[in-house]
């Protein structure tokens, strides 16, 4: 079984979602199924079929969350340090073409969120950054073409 790296914040986020799905969503869906059953003929009951589909999706997500949590390798980012970029690093970059500054935190696949500047360790930008340090230039193959960045800061928080 392959371990799933994640920060403690990512682990907690998955635990919260699992608890929500098992203690709130699951009972709500069971009630919806019971109510739909009371309406009679199940073969033509759209409410019943919708509730059963919702149940299937919810149970699938619960199984997925339990699997990821059981295989989680929680890495405490606050205990990391150094100059070399690795999992958990927050990296400040300067786009060498536009001079625009960007900041990314390298996190596990399950907690990546570009809107929060959290990139997956398996993303092209993270793969290009791993092992580099301040002052290095990296080239990232992006969908819009290759981009060059200079690393200006590495920190672990």
TrEMBL record:
<keyword id="KW-0804">Transcription</keyword>
<comment type="similarity">
    <text>Belongs to the GreA/GreB family.</text>
</comment>
<dbReference type="GO" id="GO:0070063">
    <property type="term" value="F:RNA polymerase binding"/>
</dbReference>
<feature type="domain" description="Transcription elongation factor GreA/GreB N-terminal">
    <location>
        <begin position="4"/>
        <end position="74"/>
    </location>
</feature>
<protein>
    <recommendedName>
        <fullName>Transcription elongation factor GreA</fullName>
    </recommendedName>
</protein>
<feature type="domain" description="Transcription elongation factor GreA/GreB C-terminal">
    <location>
        <begin position="83"/>
        <end position="155"/>
    </location>
</feature>
<dbReference type="Pfam" id="PF01272">
    <property type="entry name" value="GreA_GreB"/>
</dbReference>
<dbReference type="InterPro" id="IPR006359">
    <property type="entry name" value="Tscrpt_elong_fac_GreA"/>
</dbReference>
<dbReference type="InterPro" id="IPR028624">
    <property type="entry name" value="Tscrpt_elong_fac_GreA/B"/>
</dbReference>
<dbReference type="Pfam" id="PF03449">
    <property type="entry name" value="GreA_GreB_N"/>
</dbReference>
<dbReference type="InterPro" id="IPR036805">
    <property type="entry name" value="Tscrpt_elong_fac_GreA/B_N_sf"/>
</dbReference>
<dbReference type="InterPro" id="IPR022691">
    <property type="entry name" value="Tscrpt_elong_fac_GreA/B_N"/>
</dbReference>
<comment type="function">
    <text>Necessary for efficient RNA polymerase transcription elongation past template-encoded arresting sites. The arresting sites in DNA have the property of trapping a certain fraction of elongating RNA polymerases that pass through, resulting in locked ternary complexes. Cleavage of the nascent transcript by cleavage factors such as GreA or GreB allows the resumption of elongation from the new 3'terminus. GreA releases sequences of 2 to 3 nucleotides.</text>
</comment>
<keyword id="KW-0805">Transcription regulation</keyword>
<dbReference type="InterPro" id="IPR018151">
    <property type="entry name" value="TF_GreA/GreB_CS"/>
</dbReference>
<dbReference type="GO" id="GO:0003677">
    <property type="term" value="F:DNA binding"/>
</dbReference>
<dbReference type="InterPro" id="IPR036953">
    <property type="entry name" value="GreA/GreB_C_sf"/>
</dbReference>
<dbReference type="GO" id="GO:0006354">
    <property type="term" value="P:DNA-templated transcription elongation"/>
</dbReference>
<dbReference type="InterPro" id="IPR001437">
    <property type="entry name" value="Tscrpt_elong_fac_GreA/B_C"/>
</dbReference>
<keyword id="KW-0238">DNA-binding</keyword>
<dbReference type="GO" id="GO:0032784">
    <property type="term" value="P:regulation of DNA-templated transcription elongation"/>
</dbReference>
<dbReference type="InterPro" id="IPR023459">
    <property type="entry name" value="Tscrpt_elong_fac_GreA/B_fam"/>
</dbReference>
């Amino acid at each position: 079984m392959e371990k799933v790296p994640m920060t403690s914040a990512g682990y907690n986020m998955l635990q919260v979602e699992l608890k929500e799905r098992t203690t709130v969503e699951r009972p709500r869906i069971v009630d919806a199924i019971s109510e739909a059953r009371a309406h009679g003929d199940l073969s033509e009951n759209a409410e019943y079929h919708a509730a059963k589909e919702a149940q299937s999706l919810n149970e699938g997500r619960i199984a997925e969350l339990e699997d990821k949590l059981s295989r989680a390798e929680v890495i405490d980012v606050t205990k990391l340090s150094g100059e070399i970029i690795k999992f958990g690093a927050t990296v400040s970059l300067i786009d060498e073409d536009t001079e625009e500054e960007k900041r990314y935190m390298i996190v596990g696949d399950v907690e990546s969120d570009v809107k929060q500047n959290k990139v997956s360790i398996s993303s092209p930008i993270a793969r290009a950054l791993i092992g580099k340090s301040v002052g290095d230039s990296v080239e990232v193959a992006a969908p819009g073409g290759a981009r060059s960045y200079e690393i200006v800061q590495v920190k672990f928080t």
